[in-house]
Amino acid sequence: MPELPEVETTRRGLEPHLAGVRIVEAESRRPRMLRNQPRERDFADRLRGRKVEGLRRRGKFIFIDVEGDLVWVIHLGMSGRMEVAGFGEPEAPHTNVVVRTRDAEVRFVDPRTFGFMSVLTPAEFDDSSLTRLGPDALTELPRARRLADAFAKRTVAIKSLLLDQRLLAGIGNIYADEVLFRSRVAPHRTGASLEFEEVKAIRAAIRPVLEAGLKHGGTSLNDLAYLLPDGRAGDYLKRLKAYGREGEPCDRCGTPIRRSVIGQRSSFWCPTCQT
């Protein structure tokens, strides 16, 4: 579930506890969490005793630069979250990875284990799928003409195109629905069917939607799978206009919001406002 606003909020929450700090030790309790680490034992060995030089984000990934030209990669998956805790504080269930500094523990909690971590050398990074990520939807948003060219001749639904991380990195199911609601474009429309003005409207909606999600700490759904590193819930849920509002009246026209399945993902939209 965590998307760009949730991941960027997580990065900001981790930064005061990790930037410039030396890692004492790291422990993984679930081999699955290191499934993208070429050799499992390298994860702890490469972090132990090294200083964190900076934290950055691209799309849904957090990249932590570690001395020795290494990159600590974090992907939260569907249900993952990061937690900063003091020594001796009770651990949340499904705490699968613990990284310790002199002052705190950084814990990766993930019930469904769709998330992962790895610590990669430059060569390993270049050989990974991370190099195929598209431009970041918040900081590198392409011009409308470039997006139109990417959508042209595509018979895939625009909702699925917005979720394609090779085209645009960071937008997931929640914020794709919000972008399409704001731009008044139906999620099942194919990329090839869109007029240039509609692509412009989609582009114009992306940054405001993501910035609003970021401003309010992301979207914590009722299961509270996503929380900020300090344990607080994101507050954007009550501001959603489309996602999760099946049967509720559209804020613009009053038509009940409809739920459809597109590309095996639930999509929420207004059949009157979104043409």
Architecture overview:
This protein has seven helices and ten strands. The chain has 275 residues and is of the alpha+beta class. The two termini are 27 Å apart. The strands form three sheets. A four-stranded antiparallel β-sheet has the order 1-6-7-5. The chain has two domains: 4-132, MutM-like, N-terminal (N-terminal domain of MutM-like DNA repair proteins, Alpha-Beta Barrel); 144-269, Helicase, Ruva Protein, domain 3 (Orthogonal Bundle). It has helices at 4-18, 42-47, 122-126, 144-151, 158-163, 173-183, 196-215, and strands spanning 23-28, 52-58, 61-66, 70-75, 81-85, 95-101, 105-109, 116-120, 258-262, 265-269.
| CATH top level label of the largest domain | Alpha Beta
Bin the helical content: 25-40%
The biggest beta sheet reads:
4 strands, antiparallel
Radius of gyration from the alpha-carbon trace, in angstroms: 20 Å
Report the mean per-residue pLDDT as an integer. Answer: 95
Enter the CATH topology name of the largest domain.
N-terminal domain of MutM-like DNA repair proteins
